[in-house]
């Protein structure tokens, strides 16, 4: 049963989407939340497409491997999500994503732990050789999360986006499987206490 699948961390857990999450997505689908200033603000879109995707997934067979999971913060509940995507027939360009919606939860280590659990899952579930993610120079928090997990800056597309009349660089981060495994062996893979487990 997909609902029993959990990636358990010390601060957060990752679990498959359930029907009641849709209401949270709809509640979060408002332009004034600070989260949208950081997650690709130049796209200027809303959660509409993601809500449709989640509904489609919920109506389907929901079978693993998962390409998105929900983030629950201990004693707080549903707080965001992680995603993975790759262009068609291009698995080596798989990219991960993460959003924690409420900014009051930022800078407490939740994102690093959640992303670490997700990275670990993706390397195994999709037998990845490498994993990347895209961000931008206006989001040093997301760059730092990756650095804490062992990602390095592999590419910088100079002035690749414009936000509020100012140009920023697009940043491509990457991590190789053997680099991740080496961190595992040293016990620092998830960026917190390395207790991530699948139950
Ligand atoms: C990005 C995000 C997932 C990170 O989660 P988080 O829980 O805030 O991250 P953590 O607390 O684990 O780590 C944040 C790190 O960034 C650092 N940081 C915060 N602001 C910073 C800044 N202006 N410059 C440099 N580092 C900064 C923190 O100090 C911390 O590093 P440290 O542990 O070395 O001190 C979360 O903030 C978020 O969802 N933001 C909005 C959406 C978003 O940006 N998504 C990613 C789109 S590419």
Describe this structure in words.
The protein is an alpha+beta fold and 199 residues long. The chain has one domain: Aminopeptidase, CATH 3.40.630.30. Helix content is 28%, strand content 30%. It has 5 helices and 9 strands, in the order E-E-H-H-E-E-E-H-E-H-E-E-H-E. The strands form 2 sheets. A 6-stranded antiparallel β-sheet has the order 5-4-3-2-1-9, with helices on one face. Helix 3 crosses helix 4. The longest helix has 16 residues. It is globular, with a radius of gyration of 16 Å. Coenzyme A binds next to strand 5, helix 3 and helix 4.
Feature tags:
binds coenzyme A, Aminopeptidase, 5 helices, three-stranded antiparallel sheet, 30% strand
Evaluate the radius of gyration: 16 Å
**Strand proportion:** 25-35%
Average pLDDT rating: 92
Give the CATH architecture.
Answer: 3-Layer(aba) Sandwich
Strand order of the largest sheet: 5-4-3-2-1-9
Q: Figure out the total of helices.
A: 5
Bound chemical compounds: coenzyme A
Coarse shape: globular
**Span between termini:** 12 Å
CATH class: Alpha Beta
Which oligomerization state do the chains in this entry correspond to?
single chain
Task: Report low-confidence residues grouped into runs of 5 or more.
Answer: 193-199
List the helices and strands and how they pair.
Layout: E1 7-8, E2 12-15, H1 21-28, H2 48-59, E3 68-73, E4 77-85, E5 95-100, H3 110-125, E6 130-136, H4 140-149, E7 152-163, E8 166-176, H5 177-185, E9 197-198
Helix pairs in contact: 3-4
The structure holds coenzyme A (COA).
Coenzyme A (COA) is lined by residues 35, 38-39, 98-100, 106-112, 135, 139-142, 144-145, 148.
